[in-house]
Write a structure and sequence with these properties.
The protein is mostly helical. The chain contains 13 helices and no strands. The protein has one domain.
Length: about 260
């Protein structure tokens, strides 16, 4: 890659944005297409989006495309977010939806390439850690926004209770009640999916995936309007309308085995 795009991205990332709230960064981006604000959002929420894509897809190339498609959708729909302070929860939900779409497309493509569908297993094996993480992400994305948002902010993004309450416009007492209800709903969904406490707690041994720097840079450059891979565009198209690491912490508090 040439020096110019790299220096543009580096310059944007070095501008002061670390202390700004998501809503402020989003407002700056919507108003002026500020690349520094968008890059800050990519850096802040990229690890969660990447973990969703890797967990649901597994295949690295498919996950790369899904990751970029999620942030392309943010570029396109930033001005339409109903609750700008909930960017993290919105991105998490979009990531799950895009990754599901990519999973279906990849399965069809590989079936076509192979000529015959793979035989169905008579006894499904125990789920891998990636499958457990994917199940948590999908169950979390299926929660109503009021319950999904505090879980994403507290346990995926890692905000304090006070910061989460401020971001959502709630009192600390109201946030505590909402988190308790959200954990209960998530716990019930995971149990219905066949994931018991023992296997879910084992997610604690699996580190959160770090986003490859090249992907952070590629996503940050989406705002510039350059050439976008066709595979990324296909995933972004039709992703709406929609009803919408640190996963171990989500699981632990959901199961009532971590401090609240």
């Amino acid at each position: 890659m040439s020096a110019k795009p790299f220096l543009t991205t580096a310059s944007a990332l070095l501008r002061p944005t670390a202390g700004e709230a998501d809503a402020d960064l989003l407002a700056r981006f919507v108003a002026t297409r500020d690349e520094a604000a968008f890059s800050a959002l990519v850096s802040r929420h990229g690890p969660t989006v990447w973990d969703v894509c890797r967990s649901i897809l597994g295949n690295r190339a498919d996950a790369d495309d899904a990751f970029q498609a999620v942030f392309l959708l943010l570029v396109r729909r930033a001005g339409r977010l109903r609750m700008p302070g909930s960017v993290g929860a919105w991105l998490h939900g979009v990531a799950v939806r895009v990754a599901r779409k990519a999973r279906v497309s990849a399965a069809r493509r590989r079936e076509k390439e192979a000529g015959v569908p793979p035989p169905a297993a008579s006894d499904p094996p125990d789920p891998s850690w990636a499958e457990v993480r994917a199940a948590v992400h999908e169950a979390l994305a299926a929660l109503p926004a009021a319950y999904r948002e505090p879980l994403v902010l507290c346990y995926l993004r890692g905000l304090t209770r006070d910061a989460t309450a401020a971001e959502l416009g709630l009192s600390p007492a109201a946030l505590k009640k909402r988190l308790e209800r959200a954990r209960g709903r998530l716990r019930a969904a995971l149990v219905r999916g066949g994931f018991g406490p023992a296997i879910l707690l084992a997610v604690d041994a699996v580190p959160t995936c770090a986003v490859p720097p090249r992907l952070l840079e590629a996503a940050s450059r989406l705002v510039a309007g350059g050439a976008i891979p066709a595979s990324v565009l296909r995933l972004a198209e039709g992703a709406f309308p929609m009803t919408f690491g640190k996963l171990a912490v989500v699981v632990a508090v959901t199961l009532g085995v971590a401090p609240k």
